[in-house]
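Please decode residue identities from the backbone states below.
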């Protein structure tokens, strides 16, 4: 059955959507093997077999040149480690698109390989996406999360990052033990949300500030799929938790008397 240009366009869109939703693994064993086989064939220099897998829309001379360039960054020996970083699948009446990101480890580098395949209702599956990102081992080591050799201000930031979750936990325990605080559910939801963001690049120590940002528990640690990406630590201010603890500290009766008539957040414990 011939595939129309419209179906091919939809296939490409499905692959993009599947890649955007890449998280966890929801592929069958056959799909996983199909995706890995593309990389293996290129690594072994079986270019004719690899090219035959690709979408017919790709210009063959240009595809051959592109694959030859990609092959130059792949060592000929088998990888030491292979790890799937994520996968996704989207299916419609036009067919199924499935994609996965793999990490291939070598002594001197990591290769982050993204492969996408579209399977029409009838006919052979075709490769629609294939990318390779190279992460040299020097960059991986440079961006590793380590405490060695960091300046005092980064140690201080790390200590600061531990404060918001601790404040939230203390406030939640205090709220749970209080028998006469009203609207506990609202207090609880507010407590676990941090406002604003102070983010540090752990590799360089650079700090950025964002006023409009909402963060659960006031702490967020992010590391991208690629091993060479720096660790990013984000700290937010748990405003509601701080307000609650402050009100507990100065005493609820005084606060209640200052509220407008009919508005009561708590009663005296």
């Amino acid at each position: 059955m011939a595939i129309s240009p419209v179906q091919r366009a939809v296939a490409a869109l499905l692959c993009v959507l599947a890649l955007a939703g890449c998280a966890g693994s929801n592929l069958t064993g056959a799909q996983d093997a199909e995706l890995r086989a593309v990389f293996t064939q290129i690594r072994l220099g079986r270019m004719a077999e690899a090219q035959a897998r690709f979408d017919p829309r790709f210009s063959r001379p240009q595809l051959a040149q592109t694959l030859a360039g990609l092959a130059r960054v792949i060592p000929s020996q088998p990888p030491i480690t292979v790890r799937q970083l994520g996968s996704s699948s989207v299916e419609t009446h036009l067919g199924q698109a499935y994609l996965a990101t793999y990490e291939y480890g070598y002594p001197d580098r990591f290769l982050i390989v993204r492969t996408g395949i579209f399977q029409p209702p009838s006919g052979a599956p075709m490769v629609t996406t294939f990318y390779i990102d190279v992460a040299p081992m020097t960059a991986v080591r440079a961006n590793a999360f380590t405490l060695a050799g960091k300046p005092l201000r980064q140690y201080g930031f790390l200590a600061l990052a531990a404060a918001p979750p601790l404040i939230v936990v203390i406030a939640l325990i205090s709220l749970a033990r209080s028998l006469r605080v009203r609207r506990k559910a609202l207090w609880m939801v507010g407590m676990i949300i941090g406002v604003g963001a102070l983010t540090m690049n752990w590799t360089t120590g650079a700090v950025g500030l964002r006023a409009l940002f909402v963060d659960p528990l006031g702490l967020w640690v992010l590391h991208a799929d690629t091993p060479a990406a720096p660790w990013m630590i984000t700290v937010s201010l748990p405003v509601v938790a701080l307000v609650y603890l402050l009100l507990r500290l100065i005493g609820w009766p005084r606060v209640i008397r200052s509220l407008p008539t009919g508005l009561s957040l708590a009663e005296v414990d």
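Observation: Strands lie at 81-92, 95-106, 109-119, 126-136, 193-201, 207-216, 219-222, 232-237.
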